[in-house]
Amino acid sequence: MSVDAIVLVSGGMDSLVCAAEAVKNTDSVAFLHMDYGQKTSQREQESFHKIADHYGIPVLQRKVINVSFLRQIGGSSLTDDKISVKDFAGDSDVVPDSYVPFRNSIILSLAVSWAEVLGAETLYIGANWEDSPGYPDCRPAYYEAFNALVKQGTKAGSGIHIETPVILMKKKDIVKRGLELKVPFELSWSCYARSDAACGVCDSCALRLRGFKEAGLVDPISYHKE
């Protein structure tokens, strides 16, 4: 089996739009999901498979890798039960406690490994700077550096490179692009805290809701009401 591209699909809206771009731009795509021990891991995996089904990704071209050792390391409100998921406190450059230390480097390394096996030259990831400007692994400079590392650390001629199509987009523009691509936003899941209905107040929910509101649209997923 060989494919042209691998998409890291978390199940969230950014990775969904990224997946749609990959499907549009390439002939053969594989989807990759990481279970890193996050509090909503089961719900995110459900979204991953529903999105993969929507785009007709064969079972052999979708993979879920367990990297839940990040839960053992802790240090993030997404993986550590001793740290609660906070309500959105407004835009900030401060690194929030939802940051999972060095997570993207770990998951990208595994994605590059699979790309070498499948012969894929492009990796798509829905990293977005607005998601949290404080996240060191969501900055353009980080991906420039990682691409240089990939070039040095893979076999000659592999040509593997990482694409970040939504990294500098505002959430409202991601929503609008998703609308153009006819993505199934109703299948995505962004909440950090809950799996039954989105909390609506964590960083991810707040930014998602703001994006839909500024785009003049209603978010199709359900939200928890006190």
Helix content: 25-40%
In one word, what is the shape? globular
**Strand order in space, largest sheet:** 3-2-1-4-5
CATH class: Alpha Beta
Could you explain the architecture of this structure?
The protein is α/β, with parallel strands linked by helices and 226 residues long. It has a single domain (5-214), classed as 3-Layer(aba) Sandwich (Rossmann fold). 37% of the residues lie in helices and 10% in strands. It is built from 7 helices and 5 strands, in the order E-H-E-H-E-H-H-E-H-E-H-H. It has a 5-stranded parallel β-sheet with strand order 3-2-1-4-5, with helices on both faces. Helix 1 crosses helix 6 and helix 6 packs across helix 7 (203-214).
SSE layout:
Elements: E1 5-8, H1 13-25, E2 29-35, H2 41-54, E3 62-66, H3 69-73, H4 103-118, E4 122-125, H5 140-153, E5 161-163, H6 171-180, H7 203-214
Parallel strand pairs: 1-2, 1-4, 2-3, 4-5
Give the structure's gist in a few sentences.
It is built from 7 helices and 5 strands; from the N terminus they run βαβαβααβαβαα.
